[in-house]
Amino acid sequence: MDNSSRNELHGFSLALASRKAEEAAWRRYEAIRWLDSFVGPLGISNQPSEVEFLSCLRNGLILCNAINKIQPGAVPKVVDNPRPLQSISWDCQPLPAYQYFENVRNFLVAAKELNLPAFEASDLERDTFEANVVDCVLALKSLHESKQISNGNGFHKHMKSPLLLHSNRMHPRPLSTVSLDSCRRLDMPATCEKQPPIGSPNIGLEEFIVKSLVDSIVQEKENFDGNLLASLRNQDKDAVKLFQSIVSICSNESLQENVYEKTEFHTTLEDELKERCSSLAHSASVLDDISDLNSLQDYRACFKKKSCNHHKLLSIQEREVLDLKALLSKTKGEFHDLQLHLQRDLKDLENLVQGLSNAALGYHNVVQENRSLYNIVQDLKGNIRVYCRVRPSFNCLSKNMIEYIGEDGSLMILDPLKSKRDGRKVFRFNRVFGPAAKQDEVFKDIEPLIRSVLDGYNVCIFAYGQTGSGKTHTMNGPSGGADKDFGINYLALNDLFQIQNVRKDSIDYEINVQMVEIYNEQVRDLLVAESSNTKYP
Ligand SMILES: Nc1ncnc2c1ncn2[C@@H]1O[C@H](COP(=O)(O)OP(=O)(O)OP(=O)(O)O)[C@@H](O)[C@H]1O
């Protein structure tokens, strides 16, 4: 059933409950109005609540007085309080509790003798059984009215709620005998059992037949007007005319004008019930999955079956929901484990990073220390170093001048024009490069000094010698030479650029190049195109 259908049913239940409450209140007001006018001022409003109504009758005094006025001596002894009846107030109960109970008990005995709808004394203490007390009071009223009409022949009726039958089935009372229930169904007083027998000389055969027919008709058309029933019991009437009038009333359905307002209530309730059912059936019919069902009742009956497709579908969906819940629980557990695992990994990673950071810091310190030691070594080698490079000889005389080149930087030459003793000379340098020494070999010995520049040291390298001794060749290399012929200048710059690139993440080096020539006491800038600008003062 969808939500709209469920809401419809809920609304209908509420409306029905409201109608029941209105009906119960209406009957309670009717009872209290009659008691107020019949017994005397009760001291409560004409429209009392359930609590007010039951409190007013709880001492039994009003009930005993009422039944005694209708049937004198019905309650032989009424336990009364000294206050006059007119001053009775429902909320002022001077009598002890056992005296209340005595009045109520005596009233119930008298009511039973008159076949009135009974209730239990405890019903006056419980709001839920107020309807039983109201039934009894209204039956008492009907008895009074019938006695007034029929001069006390004991044939009376009382007002009956359309819900009364249901109410009595729900709460059967010991005093509500079968005959009493039958009287309720007929809306006739229980005293109907006291009608004269068939052979009574007071009633003729025709009148008995008429009475039986009327009883039968009354069973079909309950809640007959009291006057009509009184007329039936009035033996002065012509029985045949009375029967004809009843039949005419029934056939012309003019009886509807004489039924109580409850009949109209029945009709209204039935109409509303039909309308609600029609609405519910329409709502049910729009559901796709029950389109093949004829009515809402069919749908309900089908749904209650274990074999119903909707029932099976619901069962499958319930199982899927359970599976999803289990999967969700399992996923939550796995997620929790992953979180713990991730936290452990993060902790390990943190330790590794911390270790690397410490190692990097140590490495940096080691590098710093290494540089420091490196430059100390350079200092120890000497801040000023003198190297000797022997140019290859271009003639035969000079080829034999180099007699010895020592590893310790010593150079021994021999002047061929002098004797060996006088012509031999020895010179000492930091290192001597022979005629066969290559460019990179010369540079290797100078490279450590050049790198000291990057650590903040000033380094100066210059070549000195006579014309044609090979200064330009050593510092720049031969003109148009290959890479292997690069001189110290090119090789030094290449080395500095490579180191700059290696350390670019930690140190930003700025390299500037200037090239000048000092010739004849004149300094010329070799990188400037204009010759006039090349000379410095
Ligand atoms: N080590 C060497 N190996 C081969 N050739 C050399 C070497 N040194 C110098 N030369 C050659 O000797 C010649 C003169 O050399 P270089 O021009 O370098 O002399 P220099 O000292 O610069 O002369 P200057 O002072 O007049 O400029 C060049 O032709 C050069 O190629």
TrEMBL record:
<dbReference type="GO" id="GO:0008017">
    <property type="term" value="F:microtubule binding"/>
</dbReference>
<dbReference type="InterPro" id="IPR001715">
    <property type="entry name" value="CH_dom"/>
</dbReference>
<dbReference type="InterPro" id="IPR001752">
    <property type="entry name" value="Kinesin_motor_dom"/>
</dbReference>
<dbReference type="InterPro" id="IPR027417">
    <property type="entry name" value="P-loop_NTPase"/>
</dbReference>
<dbReference type="Pfam" id="PF00307">
    <property type="entry name" value="CH"/>
</dbReference>
<comment type="similarity">
    <text>Belongs to the TRAFAC class myosin-kinesin ATPase superfamily. Kinesin family. KIN-14 subfamily.</text>
</comment>
<keyword id="KW-0505">Motor protein</keyword>
<feature type="binding site">
    <location>
        <begin position="465"/>
        <end position="472"/>
    </location>
    <ligand>
        <name>ATP</name>
    </ligand>
</feature>
<feature type="domain" description="Calponin-homology (CH)">
    <location>
        <begin position="25"/>
        <end position="145"/>
    </location>
</feature>
<dbReference type="GO" id="GO:0007018">
    <property type="term" value="P:microtubule-based movement"/>
</dbReference>
<keyword id="KW-0067">ATP-binding</keyword>
<dbReference type="Pfam" id="PF16796">
    <property type="entry name" value="Microtub_bd"/>
</dbReference>
<keyword id="KW-0547">Nucleotide-binding</keyword>
<protein>
    <recommendedName>
        <fullName>Kinesin motor domain-containing protein</fullName>
    </recommendedName>
</protein>
<dbReference type="InterPro" id="IPR036872">
    <property type="entry name" value="CH_dom_sf"/>
</dbReference>
<dbReference type="InterPro" id="IPR036961">
    <property type="entry name" value="Kinesin_motor_dom_sf"/>
</dbReference>
<dbReference type="InterPro" id="IPR027640">
    <property type="entry name" value="Kinesin-like_fam"/>
</dbReference>
<dbReference type="GO" id="GO:0003777">
    <property type="term" value="F:microtubule motor activity"/>
</dbReference>
<dbReference type="GO" id="GO:0005524">
    <property type="term" value="F:ATP binding"/>
</dbReference>
<dbReference type="InterPro" id="IPR031852">
    <property type="entry name" value="Vik1/Cik1_MT-bd"/>
</dbReference>
<feature type="domain" description="Kinesin motor">
    <location>
        <begin position="383"/>
        <end position="537"/>
    </location>
</feature>
